[in-house]
Amino acid sequence: MKKKNYKGYKSFQYLEPGVDYKPFKLAKEIDRVPRYTVPLSDAEEARVKRLFEENVVISLHDHMFVVPENVNEIFEYRRWGRDWTGYEGLSVSGLDAVFDNLMNGTAMITSRNGWKWDDIIYDLGMRLSDIAHQDMVILGQTVDDIIRAKENGQIAFIPSLEAATMIENELDRLDILYGLGVRCIGIAYSEGNQLGCGLKERRDGGLTDFGRKAVRRMNKLGLAIDVSHSGDQTALDTIETSEKPVFITHAGARALWNSNRLKPDHVIKACAERGGVIGIEAAPHTTLTKNHPKHCLESVMEHFEYCVDLVGIDHVAFGPDVLFGDHVGLHHAFAEALSISASRGKNEFEEVEYVEGIESPVEAFPNIVRWLVKHGYSDTEISKVIGGNILRVLKEVWYR
């Protein structure tokens, strides 16, 4: 994979460790675990290389930060509010743009429960301060920014939030978030909020009146809307209320694995019918299937093919939801805050240490494209699902 214009920058290297902040030993960004590569012929590998060179590659949902090597240090690490971006790993990811969702639900500087306004602003500002001190990653706020990043060997970093919980009942906070660079925001996470219900709620009352106002404000601002963690009725109400296409940035098909974290067919269809796109998830123990109950690249791609058959190639993309470090350990540490148990299905499955073939951004899109090549997808089809479909929606949704 062709490397980006990476000059070796490490997060916050403009500061003095031990003086300006507490340093932590962080996980390796590259080859933390044995790397898996989808086997291809030389001709197929050449085609993969060409596809990356010719197409804009976009992740619809990821967290490009680096976890401490000792994942038990994550709470203290988060309390400092200084997340490291995995620039080295990103440089070989093949990505041209990424919807980065920070660690918004675990921004716990002032609260043990997360999602507080002050914490979200702190989290966002700190990441953007670090990004401003290097030149491989740029702030992505327009479609032109994404195209320019591709042309210049850079990566567009698109700040995103998985829920709008922090706006409370203040509609204008959406404008403030937009002004600070946020370009995609979810309605609710697992717990319900002022806008609507999350996937954890036993009874989904749908989008509230305030939630409808918020959706209309997002449309006016040019904010992309995400319903990945919303309850089914809340997701449907959002899709119906929005004048613009809506994203399911990171999920899969509940028909393949009975979990609230995944979407039923009628929600996926409703999203597609209004022009939206579903990004296929790959975070540990999410997109499992009965055929592949041990989470791996094959189970992820089974969800991909199911969704393509359900709504067509124009409405599917990838939002792997990966990071640099022990993702499973992170889930254990934040099990309550992230409502892990509520989002998993009741089917039995074997817990994995990591998802082979898609463990981090280093592996994710390179193996996704290799898999698509190996399974006979055309150049046009691959172009759509690795970025083209997302760009189409952004041209409709974003202000410019």
Could you characterize the architecture of this molecule?
It is a single chain. By secondary structure, the protein is α/β, with parallel strands linked by helices. The protein has a domain at 47-57 and 161-397: TIM Barrel, CATH 3.20.20. It is 36% helix and 9% strand. It contains 14 helices and nine strands. Strands 1, 2, 3, 4, 5 and 6 form a six-stranded parallel β-sheet that branches. A three-stranded parallel β-sheet has the order 7-8-9. Strand 4, helix 6 (173-179) and strand 5 (184-186) form a beta-alpha-beta unit. Helix 1 crosses helix 13 (364-374). It is globular, with a radius of gyration of 19 Å. The protein starts with 41 loop residues before the first helix and ends with a helix. The model has no long low-confidence stretch (mean pLDDT 94).
Structure at a glance:
The chain is α/β, with parallel strands linked by helices.
Write the layout of secondary structure elements.
Elements: H1 42-54, E1 58-62, H2 74-79, H3 87-90, E2 97-100, H4 117-131, E3 137-139, H5 143-151, E4 155-161, H6 173-179, E5 184-186, H7 209-221, E6 224-226, H8 232-241, E7 247-251, H9 265-273, E8 277-280, H10 297-311, E9 316-318, H11 327-333, H12 340-343, H13 364-374, H14 379-397
Parallel strand pairs: 1-2, 2-4, 3-4, 4-5, 5-6, 7-8, 8-9
Helix pairs in contact: 1-13
* Structure class: alpha/beta
Helix content: 25-40%
| Proportion of residues in extended strands | 5-15%
| CATH homology-level superfamily of the domain at 47-57 and 161-397 | Metal-dependent hydrolases
Could you name the CATH class of the domain at 47-57 and 161-397?
Alpha Beta
Low-confidence stretches: none
CATH topology of the domain at 47-57 and 161-397: TIM Barrel
- Distance between termini? 30 Å
The count of DSSP E runs of length 2 or more, i.e. the number of strands, is: 9
Using the CA coordinates, give the radius of gyration: 19 Å
Q: Per the principal axes of the C-alpha atoms, what is the gross shape?
A: globular
